[in-house]
């Protein structure tokens, strides 16, 4: 049931104020300043002996995994790697004995992800699921895991499942950090910041009309660039994927600094660039990259932090997000990009919920 929404995708984008909360519900302990993830079915001693983490999945889930790599390394200092499930199953990557593998899948039925799970288990690694569908094959076959509790995602383009996955990966980072080196004070600060996220998401959703105008302005583009650094590099990939999937505009995501190594050849007055440039440790670096694009007359749409006046001077259009710590910014920055893709596709008359050539769950290799 779409309720008052014209499309499932828009409904699901709006549900994120709740689904992010649902991903955290009952899982945060102020008393111990950490997260509680009983579904992992691992003792603290077992979690402490984890030497390496592998995150795998396909499509949007692989982008959430890439954000998770930055988050887990930042919060827990555990070496983390991401591999596409389709590559993982054939790659035969050498892994230390104490590796922990997470397979991430909204549907829990993606063929490549399921095959990665089975291959990982065959090699003897503890393999956990991050799934939304509790009745799925991956949920059943994994050695434990964390459910998203996001409710059914009907729109073919993944939206709320991405932010749920990133929230859960943050809880995993917090848990692993707290049993290693992280202080109580730091743990509590992270809990406060996590709990503040849903209200910030609501503030972003209020800007839908502003985002719609930007979408209309650039909907004639034949190609778009999405650029970000650090935690927001995977968000650039995800923003580009959303745009391609539902509007059929060619889009590609890159780490901002890679521009000058080739991508900049594509920049012209009719190729807009979306820069994900919140107030983080690499903001100034992003601004230098924006200047490089401006010098080639490329239009700039920035996703930036409220109150930043510098960004307005170098951008044609800006969408603001509320301030937050660097590692939580992907949850906020991904939302304007979902809305940008949505409004662009609607403007172009595309079938947003059922884009051509795509299926919600890819159960073939
Ligand atoms: C993107 C999208 C796909 C899925 C991918 C994995 O909008 O929907 O890229 O993310 O097919 O699906 P799950 O998470 O069900 O394994």
TrEMBL record:
Subcellular location: Cytoplasm
Entry keyword Transferase: yes
GO cellular component labels: cytosol
GO terms for MF: carbohydrate derivative binding; glutamine-fructose-6-phosphate transaminase (isomerizing) activity
Protein purpose: Catalyzes the first step in hexosamine metabolism, converting fructose-6P into glucosamine-6P using glutamine as a nitrogen source.
This protein's record includes keyword Phosphoprotein: no
Subunit structure: Homodimer.
This protein's UniProt keywords: Aminotransferase, Cytoplasm, Glutamine amidotransferase, Repeat, Transferase
Catalysed reaction equations from the record: D-fructose 6-phosphate + L-glutamine = D-glucosamine 6-phosphate + L-glutamate
One Gene Ontology biological process: fructose 6-phosphate metabolic process
Active-site residues, record numbering mapped to chain: 360 (for fru-6p isomerization activity)
EC number per UniProt: 2.6.1.16
Full-protein interval shown: 252 to 616 of 616
Domain SIS: start-end pairs: 43-182, 214-355
Signal peptide: none
This protein's name: Glutamine--fructose-6-phosphate aminotransferase [isomerizing]
């Amino acid at each position: 049931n779409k309720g008052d929404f014209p499309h499932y995708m828009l409904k699901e984008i709006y549900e994120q104020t709740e689904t992010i909360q649902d991903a955290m519900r009952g899982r945060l302990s102020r008393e111990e300043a950490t997260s509680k993830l009983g579904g992992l079915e691992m003792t603290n001693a077992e979690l402490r002996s984890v030497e390496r983490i592998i995150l795998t999945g396909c499509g949007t889930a692989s982008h959430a995994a890439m954000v998770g790599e930055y988050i887990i390394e930042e919060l827990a200092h555990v070496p983390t790697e991401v591999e596409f499930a389709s590559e993982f199953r054939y790659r035969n990557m050498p892994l230390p004995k104490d590796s922990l593998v997470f397979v991430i899948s909204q549907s829990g039925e993606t063929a490549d992800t399921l095959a990665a799970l089975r291959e990982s288990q065959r090699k003897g690694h503890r393999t956990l699921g991050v799934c939304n569908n509790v009745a799925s094959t991956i949920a059943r076959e994994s050695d434990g895991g964390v459910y998203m509790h996001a409710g059914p995602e009907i729109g073919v383009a993944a939206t709320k499942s991405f932010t749920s996955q990133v929230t859960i990966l943050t809880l995993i980072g917090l848990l692993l950090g707290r049993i290693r080196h992280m202080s109580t004070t730091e743990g509590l600060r992270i809990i406060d910041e996590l709990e503040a996220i849903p209200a910030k998401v609501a503030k972003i959703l209020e800007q839908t009309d502003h985002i719609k105008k930007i979408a209309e302005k650039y909907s004639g583009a034949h190609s778009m660039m999405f650029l970000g650094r650090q935690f927001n590099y995977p968000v650039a990939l995800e923003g580009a994927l959303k745009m391609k999937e539902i509007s059929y505009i060619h889009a590609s995501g890159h780490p901002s600094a890679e521009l000058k190594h080739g991508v900049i050849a594509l920049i012209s007055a009719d190729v807009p660039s979306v820069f994900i440039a919140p107030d983080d440790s690499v903001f100034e670096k992003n601004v230098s990259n924006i200047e490089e694009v401006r010098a080639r007359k490329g239009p700039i749409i920035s996703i930036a932090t409220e109150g930043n006046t510098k960004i307005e001077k170098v951008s044609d259009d800006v969408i603001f997000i509320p301030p937050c710590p660097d590692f939580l910014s992907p949850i906020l920055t991904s939302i304007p990009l979902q809305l940008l893709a949505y409004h662009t596709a609607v403007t172009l008359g595309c079938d947003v919920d059922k884009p051509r050539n795509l299926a919600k769950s890819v159960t073939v290799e």
